[in-house]
Amino acid sequence: xxxxxxxxxSCGNDYLYFDVRRAPVPAPESLARxxxxxxxxxxxxxxxxxxxxxxxxxxxxxxxxxxxxASMCGNAVRCVGAYLAAHGAEGADxxxxxxxxxxxxxxxxxxxxxVTRVTADxxxxxxxxxxxxxxxxxxxxPLSYGGRIWMATCVSVGNPHAVLFTEQPETLPLPALxxxxxxxPRFPCGVNLEFVRxxxxxxxxxxxxxxxxxxxxxxxxxxxxxxxxV
Length: 230
Description:
By secondary structure, this protein is an alpha+beta fold. It has helices at about 30-35, 75-85, 175-180, 220-230; strands at about 5-10, 15-20, 45-50, 60-65, 70, 95-100, 100-110, 115-120, 140-145, 150-155, 160-165, 190-200, 205-210, 215.
């Protein structure tokens, strides 16, 4: 079987995009595991299926590099907007994409006929513990590693996040932290981890560990989660 895909990235968050309106993709979980390893395959943070929708311009399903399915990805949905603008929605200024976390409205910014930027309405951040979900009375909880304790603030932006503040995120052993803290049983659906430093009132520095993909260059929902917590 020959499968056609488009590789796109937003801020370095890269995915393989399959237009299942044109041809079906069998076993996307296995396909993600086969295609996403760096240096051993195509390499990506995951795969995205662009499909039809009865209530939106298109639908989007996301599979992480380990084959698990995610509900939402801010950078991926922006790339879906760019793809749609080049494949059937050439004159559109706005689009709606249906995700497992609900519809996301996109604004297409153009220079002449070319789409140069896509922005997404990510919706409201959810702090209710049972909606994230996290086993915590107030959505905060201590996370410890190597004798150090962080107080994490948990939030959902279509998927679960734990935001932790630190002065030097670039020095942290993120793979070890992600594997240990991300598997904490208080996160029944797993969690994305954001280690955040506040630079000033307008800028944050962040490293992110995404459940199912590991460390990624960027995370749209993670950036929104960090901003919402700040």
